[in-house]
Structure formats: C-alpha cells, structure tokens
Write a structure and sequence with these properties.
Largest sheet: 5 strands, mixed
Low-confidence stretches: none
Number of strands: 10
Shape: globular
InterPro entries: Cyt_P450 (IPR001128), Cyt_P450_B (IPR002397), Cyt_P450_CS (IPR017972), Cyt_P450_sf (IPR036396)
CATH class: Mainly Alpha
GO molecular function, one term: iron ion binding
Radius of gyration: 21 Å
Protein name: Cytochrome P450
CATH superfamily: Cytochrome P450
Family: Belongs to the cytochrome P450 family.
Bound molecules: protoporphyrin IX containing FE
Number of helices: 17
Helix content: 40-55%
Number of domains: 1
CATH topology: Cytochrome p450
Organism: Planobispora takensis
Mean pLDDT: 91
Order of helices and strands: HEEHEHHHHEHHHHHHHHEEEEHHHEE
C-alpha cells in the first residue's frame, strides 16, 4: 500500500505535538503542504544546523526549484508570497552576499542604540493606554501590546506613513495565515507594491533617518545599488521578518511567565535576567515554526536520510530548541535556570537574523516595562484555552486575554 506523507496542519492546532511526531520520524521527513506540494521537514538540531550552513541549500525558487521553474507551481499557489520575492531572503550565493551587504548598512549597532529611546517611548505610550482599563478588566494583551509594539517599531524603522502602516498590517497578517485563499494571496502581492512605490518615491524626495532612506542611498563597493524591485521586496522582507516574529515572541514570553509563577518570581527577584527569559522563550517557543522554503542544489545527505536534488525543504524551527538529543527529556519545559539554552531561533549561517540585536532590545525594554508597570498581571484563562494562530509557519495565539490588575472582590451582602 502507498504510504502517504503527513499533511502539515494549516490550522496550527498543536504545533509542538506535530513537531514531536515529525522529529520521531527522523532528521528529515517528507510532508505535504497546501496544494499537495511535497517538501522535506527538517526536525532535529543537528540536521537543521548542518542544513542552514550548507552551501548547496538555497532559498531561490527561481534558480533551484525545478517545479517552480517548469511552471508546475501555479501563480495562485497559497504559499506563493513566500517564494516569489526578489530580496535577500530568497537570494543565493553571491547575490545574497551583495544584497545582505547593502541592507546590512541599515542594521548597524549605532542604529540599534539610536532606536532604544524610541522603543521606550512606544512602550510607555502603549502601557499608558492600558492604564485606562478598569480594575480586573480582561484585555487582549496581544492586540494591545504584543502586536502594536513591534509593528509600530518596524514601521518606524522603515519610515512609514500612517496609511502605509495600516495597509501593511493587513498584508502581514494574511501572509502568515496558511488558510488564505489563492485569490487573497494574489491580492497580497499586487495591492502592496503600489503603496511601497509611493513610500520609496517619498524618501527620494524627502530623505529621513530610516532604513528606506538608507536602502535608497546604499551603494556597494562597486557602486551598485538596489534595483526598484529589490528595494520594494527588501522592505517587505524586513517587515515580514521583523514584525510577526517579534509579536509572537512577546505573546510566548508573556504566556510562559504568567503560566508559571515560580519562573516569574525568578525574574522579579533578580535571580534570572531578561536575557534568560528571551533565550528560554526562543528555545521552547520559537516564533517561527515551519519556515518555507529552501531547495537542495545537489543531493543532501543528512544522517541516514538523503534529500534529492531539487526537492523543497522546510526548516522546522519549532523542533530545534525542544530536541531531546540536545536538551534532554525535559527539553519542552520552560526553565530559566537551565544553563544551556542553545537554540537556532534567530537562524544560523548566511541568513542569520539581521535584526537580532534590535529584537533583543525591544524584548528587554518591552517585557521589563510591562511587568514593572503591572505587577499583578495574570492570564484571564487557562493556558490550554488560548487559541493557536491558524498557521504552521508561526507559533503564537489569536489572542492573549489577561487581567492587568487583580479583580475587585465581590461585595459581601
Ligand atoms: C524575536 C524576534 C525575531 C526572530 C525570532 C527572528 C528570526 C529570524 C530567523 C529565524 C531568520 C532566518 C530565516 C531563515 O531561515 O532564512 C531571520 C532572518 C531575518 N530577520 Fe529576524 N527575527 C526576529 C526579529 C527581527 C527584527 C526585529 C528584524 C528587523 C527589524 C528582523 C529582520 C530579519 C531579516 C532582514 C532577515 C533576513 C536575513 C537574510 O535572509 O539574510 N528580524 N529572522
């Protein structure tokens, strides 16, 4: 009888159960994506690290995915927006080095330092608004804090207008929703380009202190610049890579601390640091779960598995930090006192996260300010009742209902 591949669950109902199941099958196992596309899910720390550093693994569908090159992947495929881009995220080899060098000029340590006061101001602005909640009122902390802080920060870094921010928020949300229809996916790509062309034109007329201005003026040592398409797609890459990841990081860190008072007490008492919280959250709850797509330029040999040339690959980031081979049988337990918090949640190799230091800065300022301002913060539902995002790409919740202050005790009559 023909053996069917596991189908990745587009509803994201239980990412960790799916991940454990896939890891138990081996370092890499074929899975089915929307549209019946088969890809290899790579599920162990060892194999992911090997693969991310492998020069014969690429992110360029245009150059290395035969099914895409031959037109077997329809332009309205549900996941097309992850692969049909022209930016450093999908570039390979020398091309990637060139694009990353140009974009890297906008991600200097100086910019990270310079943005810190802005992060503090944005954080305080959001916390001030939360102060208006009634005592014991339930608020959605994802909508009111975890989402807007990174979204506003990345929009600021890019130098966006209010209109561009609103349009972009919709696009990013739709992009990580793996239940999106082909028509919606098409609208995502076409509708957004107009807004970005306008943004770039505006920065040419009125340069600012922002990444778009840096990108518009950046020149490589040979004098080359980003093309118009590369510019738009690079801004898209920064938005996508920077906002949704950080939003889900906040969601997961706050959830982990609020569902384990002993862990929270470790931070409050100063026995654990916010850096411990950041790395332990990234290890146990990688914001990126299954990242599409990479391709094998030649046959790739992992321990006991061969990924044939031309096959697509997903990195199962959610599986890496929880790998028992690295962190033992309790790898899935959130434990700030764990000495070794090794994870690959910022990636590894040539595509390592360009915004990692900005992410660490916003995480530290955001979390420390939130827990300082609301010492009575608590989850308003059981952790098991939180509803996961409908996607296998991201790891987070649809909403994060909390109480900022203790409920007022009912009057005794
Ligand atoms: C907790 C927050 C974040 C996490 C977990 C995260 C994670 C990652 C990961 C795993 C990759 C590599 C993807 C791959 O396998 O190819 C990546 C790449 C990238 N990230 Fe982040 N990221 C975060 C925040 C940010 C922020 C705040 C920015 C920018 C403002 C950013 C910008 C980028 C860019 C531009 C890339 C592409 C690098 C390349 O392809 O060469 N990230 N990120």
């Amino acid at each position: 009888m023909e053996r069917r591949c596991p189908v990745l669950d587009t509803t994201g109902r239980d990412i960790h159960a799916e991940t454990d199941f896939l890891r138990a099958q081996g370092h890499a196992v074929q899975v089915e994506l929307p549209g019946g596309v088969l890809a290899w899910s790579v599920n162990t720390y060892e194999a992911v690290r090997q693969l991310l550093a492998e020069p014969d693994v690429t992110k360029s569908a245009r150059n290395h995915w035969p099914a895409f090159i031959n037109g077997e992947i329809p332009p309205d495929w549900e996941m097309i927006s992850w692969i049909a881009m022209d930016n450093m995220v999908t570039a390979y080899g020398k091309d990637h080095v060139r694009l990353r060098r140009l974009v890297g000029k906008a991600f200097t340590p100086r910019r990270t330092e310079a943005i810190k006061p802005r992060i503090t101001a944005l954080t305080n602005h959001l916390l001030d608004a939360l102060e208006a909640a009634e005592p014991g009122e339930v608020v959605d902390l994802r909508e009111r804090f975890a989402y807007p802080l990174p979204a506003m920060l990345v929009a600021d870094l890019i130098g966006m207008s209010e209109e561009a921010r609103a349009a972009t928020a919709k696009v990013i949300d739709m992009m990580v929703d793996t239940t999106v229809t082909p028509d919606q996916a098409q609208a995502i790509l076409s509708g957004w380009r107009g807004a970005m062309a306008e943004l770039i034109a505006e920065k040419r007329r009125n340069p600012g202190e922002d990444i778009t201005t840096d990108l518009v003026t950046a020149r490589d040592s040979d004098g080359s610049r980003l093309s118009e398409v590369e510019l738009t797609d690079t801004i898209f890459a920064i938005l996508g890579a920077g906002s949704e990841t950080t939003i889900n990081f906040f969601d997961n860190a706050i959830t982990a601390l609020l569902s384990d008072p002993e862990q929270l007490e470790l931070v409050r008492s100063g026995r654990s640091t916010w850096d411990d919280v950041i790395d332990e959250t990234l290890r146990v709850e990688s914001p990126l779960a299954h990242l599409p797509l990479r391709y094998a330029v030649t046959d790739i040999h992992l321990d006991g598995v061969t990924i044939p040339q031309g096959d697509p690959i997903l990195i199962n980031y959610a599986a890496v930090g929880r790998d028992p081979a690295l962190h033992g049988t309790d790898a899935g337990r959130f434990d700030l006192t764990r000495q070794d918090k090794e994870h690959l949640s910022f990636g590894y190799g040539p595509h390592y996260c360009l915004g990692a230091s900005i992410a660490r800065a916003v995480a530290t300022i955001g979390l420390s300010s939130l827990f300082e301002r609301f010492p009575e913060l608590s989850l308003a539902v059981d952790r098991q009742e939180l509803v996961p995002l409908p996607t296998f790409i991201m790891n987070g919740h649809r909403a994060l209902p909390v109480r900022l202050t203790a409920p007022v005790p009912a009057a005794v009559s």
